[in-house]
Specification:
Layout lengths: L1 E2 L6 E2 L2 H9 L5 H13 L6 H14 L8 H7 L3 H14 L15 H5 L4 H9 L7 E10 L3 E8 L10 E7 L2 H12 L13 E3 L5 E3 L15 E9 L2 E9 L3 E2 H7 L7 H22 L1 E2 L8 E4 L2 E4 L6 E2 L15 H7 L6 H21 L2 H26 L2 H6 L4 H17 L16 H8 L6 H4 L9 H14 L10 H5 L6 H58 L9 E5 L10 H4 L3 E6 L17 E5 L2
Antiparallel strand pairs: 1-2, 3-4, 4-5, 5-9, 6-7, 8-9, 10-12, 11-14, 12-13, 15-16, 16-17
């Protein structure tokens, strides 16, 4: 080290750079001694400022090959070089990762991870969790059952798709075991803590390594890369390591302005999620049981499921873990039993029946309608209470896993995507119903209202598409008896089949055109009939006029009367000149026309001169 006489700042001599770059790193032991002696010579009050000055020097100074000193030390094989690297990181505070990179974009940790075993082990341990994960964002998500950190797996190269990971640290052993079992099924016996379930093939694609395999298709579910169940630095960890998602559906709804507006993206979300859930139900006979926006994440443009610690096989009892804001009403009725006693409900039923009868008799139908609605709610509560009191298996049946549990939750999520607002008011951390009023609303749910549906795709100009979205919600957000039964049925809905919907609309358009053509042809037929009638009438008129003409000619035969004449009804009150009966009655008036001037001769009263005669 030397001091620049002009600036008074420390700098590294060129001879050091040359020696560090051309030897195995033994000379770096001398650099280590010089730096350590320099700090020991400092007064205590100046120690921190001297360290900061050295840190700045080590970050900014580079050799002719654009490599900082820490990078050179990390690349050498000698123990002295490793000791210098450790000292620079631990004592001086030089960042092993993000402070600087060499001209190839490598950090000092990247270089050390390519070194010998001692260097690699050191690089893995510095500032990492479980000896390999450098935490980038701690507590990215937290709930009562787990905490999720975003991290970099320092053992993976920058080109490895499994480098950026999410660490799901689980606080409950039972839930950890359940998710592990659901994800790996029987193959979890073939693997152990920290063992990779995936590796890269020659093309760089991720493939299963044969020591344990994910149960679910990676197209639908974020794969498990490995799990840890071990002690680390005096703390026991049970966690799942998965690919880091870009964003959860919850964040997409809140920040991207897609919900209620971008129909194409919403349709894509709807199809991706329906296919993923159908994969669980049809291929693996289990349900997710905790479908909600936080448990759907986007990875490289695809939407996939996470979080299987509430998942159970179809026909098995549901777990105690719930997000009540996405719980179907039949399960909510069991999980949130009514506070009213059966006697109270029976009395309320009798009161409402009397109120309904009196209102109906007096003609007050608005009150009668309200009473009838309230009566239906009370009767439903009575049924639930009777089931609870009798200890019937029906209660247990409503707590058993079936496809319709996920279909309801799917409908609640789709409602939020289609309207940009939640169906129920929930807390923002656990997705549970906010208050008793929302709980009662869920327990007493029958069908989604037209008022709620009025918010669906408000800005969409295609009314047919909007109606298909509303129809999807009606079929998902209803009573269990009326709800769609499988995700195969969900996937057949027109909103999820835009091409089919367009084809349907095209066919409807063709049918409309055919109807209009039929109507036009009918009108044309009517016009043709009228033309035929007109032709027939004109033909009859021509025949009658020829008859009149022959009659007049017979009368005037042998006379020198003009042959140009009008033949009009004698009765001037007859104005319907097309009426043949009037025109060719028993008497007609013949008015002659001057063949030269074509004038009609008139008498002294200026009336046309002519003769009345009877037709032969």
């Amino acid at each position: 080290l030397a001091i620049n006489e002009e600036t008074g700042m420390l700098y590294i001599k060129e001879s050091v750079w040359e020696a560090a770059a051309t030897t195995d790193g033994l000379v770096l032991g001398l650099v280590h001694k010089v730096i350590r002696d320099h700090l020991h010579a400092c007064k205590e009050d100046d120690l921190q400022s001297t360290k900061d000055e050295l840190k700045t020097l080590l970050i900014t100074s580079r050799n002719s090959d654009e490599s900082p000193l820490l990078h050179l030390a990390a690349a050498r094989t000698s123990a002295k070089a490793l000791a210098l690297a450790q000292y620079l990181v631990k004592e001086i505070g030089v960042d092993l990762d993000n402070a600087v990179t060499d001209k190839e974009g490598r950090t000092a940790r990247d270089i050390a991870m390519a070194g010998n075993s001692e260097t690699r082990n050191w690089a893995k341990s510095v500032g990492t969790k479980l000896g390999r994960y450098r935490i980038e964002e701690e507590g990215r998500y937290s709930s009562g059952s787990c905490t999720v950190d975003f991290a970099t797996d320092v053992t993976k190269s920058k080109s490895d798709p499994a480098r950026n990971v999410a660490i799901k640290i689980m606080h409950n052993r039972e839930k950890f075991d359940r998710e592990l079992k659901q994800r790996l099924e029987g193959s979890h016996r073939n693997t152990s803590s920290g063992i990779d379930l995936y590796m890269k093939d020659d093309s760089g694609a991720m493939i299963e390594n044969g020591k344990g395999s994910n149960r679910f298709d990676v197209d639908h579910v974020v794969p498990l890369l490995r799990y840890h169940s071990e002690d680390f630095e005096g703390k026991y960890y049970q966690c799942l390591i998965m690919l880091k998602g870009e964003r959860s559906m919850d964040e997409i709804i809140r920040y991207e302005g897609t919900a209620g507006k971008d129909v194409n993206k919403i349709t894509g979300f709807a199809v991706d999620l329906a296919k993923a859930l159908n994969h669980l139900h049809s291929d693996h006979n289990l349900i997710h049981a905790d479908v909600k926006p936080r448990n759907v994440v986007r990875i490289r443009g695809d939407n996939k499921l996470i979080d299987f610690d509430a998942s159970v096989n179809i026909g098995e009892p549901l777990t105690k873990k719930i997000s009540s804001g996405y719980l179907p009403p039949e399960v909510a009725a069991v999980r949130f039993p009514l506070k009213e006693s059966l006697d109270d409900l029976m009395r309320r039923k009798q009161e409402l029946e009397r109120e309904f009868q009196e209102s109906a008799r007096s003609g007050n139908f608005d009150v009668a309608r309200i009473s009838m609605t309230q009566l239906g709610v009370v009767e439903e509560k009575i049924k639930i209470k009777q089931v609870e009191s009798a200890g019937s298996n029906s209660v247990k049946e409503e707590s058993v896993a079936c496809a319709q549990v996920d279909i309801w939750a799917y409908g609640v999520l789709m409602f939020e995507l289609l309207t940009d607002r939640p169906l129920f008011k929930c807390d923002k951390i656990f997705d549970n119903l906010l208050n008793d009023e929302e709980t009662r609303r869920l327990v007493n749910w029958k069908d989604i209202t037209d008022e709620d549906l009025s918010d669906v795709l408000k800005e969409c100009p295609d009314q047919g598409l909007t109606e298909s979205a509303k129809d999807l919600l009606r079929k998902c957000l209803c009573t269990k008896q009326s709800r769609l039964k499988t995700f195969n049925q969900v996937l057949q809905q027109p909103f999820l089949n835009r091409e089919e919907l367009q084809s349907q609309k095209f066919n409807e358009g063709l049918e409309n055109i055919d109807t209009k053509l039929d109507q036009a042809n009918e009108k044309l037929d009517q016009a043709n009939k009228k033309l035929d009638q007109t032709h027939k009438m004109l033909s009859e008129m021509q025949t009658e006029l020829a008859h009149v003409s022959r009659g007049v000619n017979n009368i005037l035969k042998g006379c020198h009367a003009p042959k140009l004449m009008y033949i009009i009804p004698e009765d001037p009150s007859v104005m319907d000149w097309i009426n043949l009966n009037a025109l060719v009655g028993e008497k007609v008036k013949v008015i002659f026309i001057c063949p030269v001037t074509l004038y009609i001769p008139r008498d002294g009263n200026n009336k046309p001169m002519g003769y009345s005669m009877e037709m032969p």
